[in-house]
């Protein structure tokens, strides 16, 4: 007898289909670790604790998934690119320790930074699905958006509501605030939620601004993008870091032209120049920085050094270190120890205050001075791998990864001054952006309805 056709009602009530073998399903809790890490940047110690715990959790989770057949946390290409980008960052650190100025410290830095590798796998797993990307990128946009509004309120009232709440809580718990009285008294720029003892608000907002602009642009189109661009731009200018002005200008160019076109984008920049002129007349801190920048046109070295806040002296010292340690540098984070021997103006008062310069303030010079030619070659290899992955990706993957790509690109833009990439704060953020880029570009998202584990 012929078999009867299955009853559709009975078939639909059966157990759900099993995960396709080797499906990339991500991990639903991974975005929470990334968002917690970024949200806690006002307290770097707590942020580092979240990073370390996230790295350990990722290792445990990967081991458990390894012995479970079927679904995986991230694709092989994402795993390979994330690991390769970490290696391009970490191997120069390790090799530089062999004959560093302070070998013990260099080896400790390299050992501690090994925790970044499992954390980067966790970051890539967070954006391994479309839902994970929406949660992670959307969460970053909300965090930076809140910090922007908070900073605007500080500009209007003189107090950051978020930092005031955090500082009050710290006072109640420990009896002292987040920052010392001297740090609070010496602040000369908008500090926002990060506070007057961690004056990096401009750099952080500028580097993470693509997540805000793309999220607002998708939801509210042109009008929303213009409002968000103006709000973020005011905060970046008032935060005082001229390097972040360049970073944010790149963000506007690379994100705005696709939405506005070149003619309207030029109008945005014309409005920005007008707004900067108004801030120059109404805000002493902005006026001082613009006046200092004008010294660049001076024909003498002192005028240029004044315009760049002592950078030329630091860069000349970095070139000295490159000449004396061309192969593997003076060691990661060894710049301050090597600076006195290479200071081109020893005994002269510095533009940055007491003590030696702490880092080279420029990506290429930092890599060359601290990790040598070997380090630069590996950084270039990492950049080439990241570009190759973009070049061969399809349009859908590129669109998914575009905010992370732009954030990473402007952060490492070589023709700018920078924070220290081998520091805990800025190195961690840069590697986070690298993993968001690799994970979202090579996510291989599953079909609609696939669950996360």
Automatic annotation (TrEMBL):
Protein's UniProt keywords contain Transmembrane helix: yes
Subcellular localization(s) per the UniProt record: Membrane
This protein's name: O-Antigen ligase family protein
Keywords carried by this UniProt record: Ligase, Membrane, Transmembrane, Transmembrane helix
GO terms for cellular component: membrane
Transmembrane segments: 34-64, 136-156, 222-240, 261-279, 405-438
Molecular function (Gene Ontology), one example: ligase activity
The organism's taxonomic lineage, starting at the top: Bacteria, Pseudomonadati, Pseudomonadota, Gammaproteobacteria, Lysobacterales
